[in-house]
Amino acid sequence: MSGTIHIENPTPHVRVLILDNPPMNPLGAAMRETFLAVLDEIEAASALRCLVIMGKGRGFCTGADLTSVDKEDLSTFGLLLDRLEASRIPVVAAVNGWCAGGGVELALCCDIRIASTEAGFICAGVNMGMMASAYRLPRLIGEGPAKSMLLTGLRTDAETALRFGLVTALHPPEELKGAAVALAERIASRAPLSVEATKRVASRAVDMTPQEAGRMTNAEMKVLRASADHREAVAAFRERREPIFTRS
Question: Which residues make beta-bridge pairs with 91?
């Protein structure tokens, strides 16, 4: 099966992508191309302010489709990861089940990860004579915990993933999607230009010197101070009401 990606729009500013390729939602070539096309659409849709990604059934994602890996050009998988990581809007991964191999990489490219209490994470590169997550995972959770996952290829349960900082919250399986959408709605309710600027700076923070961070922050703040959304936020604060942001 080539699988598909279901698209839901619970609010005008939030989009949910559901990977559907039973039983564990690997991303074959066709699904990767669809995913890239969806990201193109998201970048062009100024009304969208947050994206949620999850899998259908008992798996989040297991990366490339190993049943056809010998026949495929896997360069599009790396392109997909880079594009997702560079998305202008925040991305929430709702890890609903098994997350293995390239699926861990997919989750790491998201800005926030929450998980089902039944989720499990496997850095399966060493199990398959390959390598995955050796760059992104240590940067997120630290070298020691990352190596314990990367070098053993063993399953890490949801509670351990929370303790490591791989995920920031756990929810019962039946509540995960609602929690992810609520989190996305909260992000989408904040000043969009500010959210996007904050993501840009935070995503580069660990690689910058204090001086570089200061220059980047000052450049972003110059734009934000002149924005209509900043003026609206100040007015709403003074008038004790909720602001109405327009991404302008």
Answer: 51
The reply to whether 232 and 113 lie within a common domain is no
Domain holding 141: CATH number? Answer: 3.90.226.10
pTM of the model: 0.95
Could you report the per-residue pLDDT of 56-94, keeping only the tens digit for each? 999 999 998 777 655 556 788 999 999 999 999 999 999
Does residue 49 share a domain with residue 86? yes
Q: What is the rounded distance in angstroms from the CA atom of residue 35 to the CA atom of residue 14?
A: 16
Domain identity same for 119 and 78: yes
Contact 153, 133 (CB under 8 A): no
Assigned domain for 95 exists: yes
Domain span holding position 61: 4-188
pLDDT at 1: 52
